[in-house]
Design brief:
Layout (H helix, E strand, L loop, with lengths): L10 H9 L5 H13 L1 H17 L10 H9 L4 H4 L13 H17 L1 H7 L5 E5 L4 E4 L5 E4 L3 E5 L8 E12 L8 E5 L2 E5 L3 E6 L5 E8 L2 E4 L4 E4 L3 E6 L5 E5 L7 H4 L1 E8 H12 L14 E7 L3 H10 L1
Parallel strand pairs: 5-6
Antiparallel strand pairs: 1-4, 2-3, 3-5, 4-5, 5-8, 6-7, 7-10, 8-9, 9-12, 10-11, 12-13, 14-15
Helix pairs in contact: 1-2, 1-6, 2-3, 3-6
């Protein structure tokens, strides 16, 4: 990488100088700016730091014996990855400058081996973000998740894990690949939703007073700290954030997936509910100024219509 002065900076040589306390003030600032510049830079720095701590090279560096330390490290390497590691040939005496280069070389070798990286470093968490658009993603287990706007999903590696765990913020529809040996678990605030394979929707928006789970097919377990309910097709579960009460009921919300399908259906629906559904789909803030209009009933179907078009049609009904 090149800095603002046009000079090349090798951050992978700068990191061990920083960790050993041999970096100057200017070098410290350069490295810290680089780490904060992106999540990938931060991940690489933390991986180096973890390998540095595990190798013990940051302890008593003046009497550090690289050959002896390398032999000690080899004992922690899994047999299947031992063949991927090559020896470093170094002289027994060296300066601090050489020390940092040797330490960096050891760390690079450790991290460059996929097997050792997975052995020493915890699995990375993947984040799926949807800001101004709806996004559909396939998870490592084959499940499909569709995130509404301003929603996020985080999950660690799912390979060879007891369960398939994800964390949700916002709204999402899940089509979970069935696996009778591993549950699919969604964590939201104070509740968890557990399934083996099914289709369901979760509304966990921060600005709402409750969390809603609606099942389209299969069955879903919803658990809070003190309660548990089982939901079947076309059933809904609601968790009140203030009281902690978890309730089960028949789903009467025809438009819970309108944000994804683009279709809004109203059958003798109170205008108050119509406005609620429009605000949810279009992320709008429509209000009814006249309370007497809240109970006015609307019957109509809107398919891929803009908010402005729908409002004009409702005004004429």
């Amino acid at each position: 990488m090149v800095n603002n002065d046009g000079n090349h900076i090798d951050y992978f040589e700068l990191i061990p100088r920083y960790l050993s306390g041999n970096a100057g003030n200017h070098e410290v600032q350069l490295l810290e700016d680089w780490v904060l510049a992106s999540e990938e830079n931060k991940r690489q720095f933390l991986a180096f730091r973890q390998a540095w701590l595990l190798s013990g090279v940051g302890i008593n560096h003046k009497s550090f014996d690289i050959d002896a330390e390398w032999l000690r490290l080899k004992k922690n390497i899994t047999p299947e990855n031992a063949g991927k590691i090559r020896q470093l040939q170094v002289k027994p005496k060296y300066s601090i400058g050489n020390f940092t280069r040797y330490a960096a070389a050891i760390i690079i070798i450790l991290i460059s081996s996929i097997g050792i990286y997975n052995y020493f470093i915890k699995p990375q968490t993947t984040s799926l973000l949807s800001q101004n658009s709806i996004k559909t993603n396939q998870l490592p287990d084959g499940s499909i998740v569709t995130l509404n706007q301003n929603s996020a999903l985080r999950y660690p590696e799912m390979k060879d894990t007891k369960d398939r765990k994800v964390e949700l913020e916002g709204e999402a529809f899940f089509d979970v690949t069935r696996d009778t040996n591993r549950s699919f678990i969604v964590s939201i605030d104070n509740i968890t939703v557990e399934v083996l394979g099914t289709e369901f929707y979760i509304d966990a928006r921060k600005d709402q007073g409750q969390i809603t789970v609606i099942v389209r097919s299969g069955s879903v377990s919803v658990k809070s700290d003190s309660e548990k309910i089982i939901l079947g097709p076309n059933e809904s579960g609601t968790y009140d954030k203030d009281s902690g009460i978890l309730l089960k009921s028949e789903n009467k919300d025809l438009n819970y997936l309108a944000w994804n399908t683009g279709i809004l259906i109203f059958e003798k629906t109170d205008l108050e509910r119509v406005v609620h559904d429009l605000n949810r789909k279009f992320k709008s803030n429509i209000r009814i100024d006249n309370p007497q209009l809240q109970s006015c009933q609307i019957t109509a179907t809107f398919e891929n219509k803009s908010l402005e078009s729908i409002i004009k049609i409702i005004e004429k009904l």
